[in-house]
Amino acid sequence: MDLFAGCGGLTLGAAQAASDAGLALDVRLAVDFEQAAVDVYQANFPGANAVMASVEDYFDGELTDELTEAELKTRKRIGTTHLLFGGPPCQGHSDLNNRTRRDDPKNKLYLKMARAALVLEPSIVLIENVPTVRLDTAGVVQTTFDFLEKLGYDVATTTVGMHALGVAQKRRRHVLLASKVEGIDPKLVLSDLASRAEDSSFNLEWAIGDLKELTNPTGYDTPPKASAANIERMEYMQESGDLDLPNERRPKCHQDGNHSYKSMYGRLSWNDPAQTVTSGFGSIGQGRYMHPSALRALTAHEAARIQGFPDYFSFSVAMKRADLATMIGNAVPPALMREVGAAVIDLLALKPGTIDQLRLEPSMTGGELALAV
């Protein structure tokens, strides 16, 4: 089950891990409140039960209440759950949120993952979020941690760098992992992920270098449009070779040397990973999103690659640029669930079922394997 599923980053990682183990996924339920993201999810996982809804529609009880009628129906309909994972909304925890940071009503949606664990009794629970989720004023991480322990889970948390998992960006994620499976120690699984060394070969040249020159680009390869002022700023950085825009060339609101957004209007480097990709990747005014060598910000295709989505994952059903930006920027890099899945799937004691096996084909990205259901 994938709650707060978005376009399916965590599911894709689980599918990759399952494929490596000779298995397929049976996605009993994937929930998101954005129709465009659900459409992309369904297009890539046609056998999944993906629905546009609120997680509260399925798990509507408070954390310690008796199970509600809706939750009893969910339990009966879903049945055995091996993997429960999700990335609750992170905007309320983010340092980029100056309005409701640490004290946003949406922050309590994190607790819905614990409630779902009570209802479904899955073998493994994984919850991801931004590192600053630990600072939430309501203490949602500790509350969830303690609740899962009372349910009989072994629980651990840590912060994992995505670059060390083979993703071409400096994104870091807070991960809570809980297990009821003998032989799966969440502390060991997470300490392995957190201790991995970064590999400098996973840079932008590796991730998007083949997309430098595209003839008649369409769809999610279409370059974003920039204002005249931003074109002038990009021309300056391209000609000077600078990665950071001088203070006097920034908008007046960004000329205060004390502000914390120094990467705004910055240019990316081919030899380095990108900064964290957000939904603002199409504008240099939203972060260090100027292409390393072109007079433009990143395309949706490039942002998806930087997030770790292989080319066989299709975003073609997303018709609006804004929808693409939101779902790609909010996605969880598949590498996270791929690596966690690789550590746990063999120990889940799965029983043979009637699910068709995945057919493996060469993908569009080197030696990886594409998944065709």
TrEMBL record:
InterPro entries: C5-Methyltransferase (IPR050390), C5_MeTfrase (IPR001525), SAM-dependent_MTases_sf (IPR029063)
Cytoplasm found in the keyword field: no
Keywords: Methyltransferase, Restriction system, S-adenosyl-L-methionine, Transferase
Superkingdom, taxonomy of origin: Bacteria
Top-level enzyme category: transferase
GO molecular function, one term: DNA (cytosine-5-)-methyltransferase activity
Keyword Zinc assigned: no
GO biological process: methylation
EC number, UniProt record: 2.1.1.37
Family: Belongs to the class I-like SAM-binding methyltransferase superfamily. C5-methyltransferase family.
Listed PANTHER family: CYTOSINE-SPECIFIC METHYLTRANSFERASE (PTHR10629), DNA (CYTOSINE-5)-METHYLTRANSFERASE 1 (PTHR10629:SF52)
Name listed for the protein in its UniProt record: DNA (cytosine-5-)-methyltransferase
Species of origin: Microbacterium candidum
Native organism taxonomy: Bacteria, Bacillati, Actinomycetota, Actinomycetes, Micrococcales
